[in-house]
Amino acid sequence: MNIINNRTVFFTLLVSYFFYSVYIYASGTDALPGMISHTDESRHGQQLFQEYHCTACHQFYGLGGHMGPELTNAMSYRGGDIGEIIARAFLVNGGNGMPNFNLSESEVSALVAYLKFVDKTGTYPPKNYEVKWGMIFQEDDPEWISKEIQ
Amino acid sequence: MIGLRFMRLGVLSLAIGLFFGVIGGFQFLFPEFLRELLFTKTRAIHVSMVVSWIFLIAIGGIYYYLPQYTGKKLHSNKLAVWHYWLFLITGICVLFSYLSGKFGGREYFAFPPILSIPIFVSWVLFGFNYFKTMSYEKNPWPVYYWQWATGIVFFFLTYTEAHLYLIPYFRDNMVREIIVQWKSYGALTGSWNMLVYGTGLFIATRIGGSIDIARSKMAFGLYFLGLFNLIFGWAHHTYLVPSETWIRTFAYFVSMTELYIFGKIIWDWRGSLQQWEINRHITAYRFLFAADIWVFLNLGLALIISVPIFNLYTHGTHIIVAHAMGSTIGINTMILLSSIFFIINESRESQLSKAQIKKVVHGFWIANISLAVFLIALILAGIGKGVLYTDMPFQAMMFNIRPFLVVFTLAGITLMLGLWIILWHAYQNIGVLHSSLSNTTQEDTIKEEFSM
Predict the structure, then answer these.
(1) N or C, which terminus of chain B has less Cβ within 10 Å?
(2) What's the rounded Cα separation, in Å, for the pair B413 and B18?
(3) Which domain holds residue A22?
(4) In the predicted model, is pLDDT for residue B173 greater than 60?
């Protein structure tokens, strides 16, 4: 009897895992209105970001290494083109602990395009948010955006 | 016997992983240190070797315990040997890929994704062997068999999920990519925790002399609570990634169910201390007890960082690193060391001598005290990054938290030395046990031949 109960609980959780995963893959992580589409160049930048294992030192949305700065909004948080100029300088020359990877000009441009793509996905850390019951409701959440539209 | 080979390889893996961790610590402080060996390489090697340690010892334990302690002959020794060689050869390929600067660039799995195929195949062999072996068991399973089975099943699922980024549907949407990635990693660590906790409980029942506790409703209740958290409790990694609020709210609720475990540890504290007084002379128990304390401390930290408003300040800081290190070293490593010493203590030939016990105990204290300093330094560095110096430019913030990072690196060195002392004796004595079992097997074979 006990074994049947344990099996039932296990398989119920397993089935829930599948349904939950499908939901997350589908509507739980839909593209938000502010996002821009990947271009071939930004896609190439994404590939380079992985090939050089940049996440060993850098973070997106606070996830990744701690040796270099957070990059989610590296392109925009200083305003204007300053972010891009700084990024290009580091990508070409290295410095402040970052190695010079001897990147080609097209690779630098691809990585900048990727950083611009990431920049449009949201704000990190969130600037505008509400706290209810210890929960954070932030400006880039779908609920927040749809409330603003209304 | 194959289990012991896995364990020896695991011990080597941790020893190397620790070494690269220390090199990485120095590179963190002095980026010019060993410039040819970039931090991107040392970090990847450190992570992969330490994760391999966890898998190798947990898997080795299962291969060893099933035939030796439960009377279940492995369905196929040959498959287990294949598993071993596949793991070893893939591991060497992974190391070469890192050293030559070829990356897949993902957290945990920084190697090119093509190398994931043999790892996946090796788990198919392991899973098939385990379930086939267990299919001969007619009695209801104690909870550790469930935990091992769950670890295997969820490794398959989460490892597959971790590679969904290869499909453009996932890769092209940054939010989806990042959430699915960390969903899989959260559950993946849960899956190896299942293997490790199952091992811990198995040893506890053997030391205690009764498996009743592993059949109790409480044990199953805690197991299912762990599984529930494995499946649904990963979203504290992605609280700050723009996504539907209910996913975070649900994960918040799920994470808080672990308060029950936290409370239970406090409730059982006196009983745990009594058990410590009775069993402290057993080396394996010493490590289990240390793991118990680290579970308590680490669970406390996990609960804090799972509250979204606190997560806002701790996320992306060294506090999260402290949580990860506390889990892998304080909990997983202590349980796995307990497993090793439990095994080598069971045979007269491989038992630790008094002099060896003394050295292992020294290593134990050096490692645990260093780990405490190591984690405190990381937490303080994290408070600096997430609370005190948030308005500063990155380099200025790093300059301000540097004293904590110096302490962290120094504690990392002593932690490595403490664990190396332990690992040296573990490695030697597993070897002794391996040879003694080989001799016994050879003698048995000769006897069988003569009797024919």
Answers:
(1) C
(2) 9
(3) 1-30
(4) yes
Beta-carbon separation of A10 and B150 below 8 A = yes
User: Does residue A9 sit in the same domain as residue A69?
Assistant: no
Q: Which candidate in A37, A66, A124 is best for mutational testing of the B interface (most B CBs within 10 A)?
A: A66
Q: What share of chain A is helix, strand, coil (3-state, %, to 5)?
A: 50, 10, 40
Of residues B335, B338, B258, the one with CA closest to residue B291: B335
Of residues A50, A67, A134, nearest to B103 (C-beta): A50
Whether residues A128 and A82 share a domain: the answer is yes
Residue in the block written with tokens 């010892």: B57
Angle, CA B104 vertex, CA B98 and CA B106 arms, to 5°: 105
CA distance B8 to A138: 49
Report the gap between the CA of A13 and the closest CA in chain B (Å). 7
**Residue A75 — very low, low, confident or very high, per pLDDT cuts 50/70/90?**
very high
Regarding whether A127 and A63 lie in a shared domain, the answer is yes
In the three-class reduction of DSSP (H, G, I as helix; E, B as strand; rest coil), residue B134 is classed as helix
Closest Cβ opposite residue B252 in set A62, A66, A135: A135
Residue of A149, A145, A126 whose CA lies nearest to B241: A126
Helix spans in B103-171 (H): 116-134, 143-161, 168-171
ipTM, interface predicted TM-score of the complex: 0.90
Do residue A9 and residue A50 come from a single domain?
A: no
Both tokens assigned to B194:
């299942």
| Residues B237-262 pLDDT 10s | 888 888 888 888 888 888 888 888 87
Are the CB atoms for B79 and B129 separated by under 8 Å? yes
What CATH number is given to the structural domain containing A49?
A: 1.10.760.10
Hey, which residues 88-147 in chain A have their CB within 8 Å of chain B?
96-99, 117-118, 121-122, 124-126, 129, 131, 134-138, 140-143
Based on the domain organization, do A150 and A85 belong to the same domain? yes
CA distance B381 to B397: 10
Question: The dihedral of CA B154, B160, B163, B164: what is its sign?
Answer: negative
For residue B332, give the DSSP letter.
Answer: I
Shortest distance, CA A90 to any CA of chain B (angstroms): 14
pLDDT score for B451: 58
Number of domains in chain A: 2
Q: Peptide bond before A125: cis, by omega within 30 degrees of 0?
A: yes
Query: Mean pLDDT over all residues of chain B?
Result: 91
Are B40 and A56 in contact (CB < 8 Å)?
yes
